[in-house]
Amino acid sequence: MNLQGIVSVSGKPGLWRAMAQSKTGFILESLDAQKLKLVVNLNTAKLAALEEITVFGEEEDLKLTDIFERMKTAENTPDAKKADGKVLRAFFREVAPDHDEEKVYASDIKKIISWFELLKNRPEFKAVPEAAVAATEAGNDGESGQA
Fold this sequence. Notes:
By secondary structure, the protein is α+β, with helices and mostly antiparallel strands.
């Protein structure tokens, strides 16, 4: 999964892709069907890159990308808009069993599931990060033995 350039903007719903950088901020495009453009000023808006977001854990924080990987293999993802808090929490216990239930609120879970729904069918979500491809190719170079 390659989530580079995908961000969340505080106060704005959904997810955004960084299209370009200006002197004072970024030009973003929404990932939903509307494809809205937004210019954000870094002095007034708070951006969070998805690949850097973590969730509170019991022992250590959990990477959002790891949770998304587990969500990919989950059988039934609840509808974040319609499911109640208990259903969302039960699902989140499956995909992130080590999360801190006192610090991770139902609203956080709802947001993560809605982000997953936005991303799951996008090509970059299915893509393998370049670092992983390079590591795999490096490992294969040493295995080219003769028969």
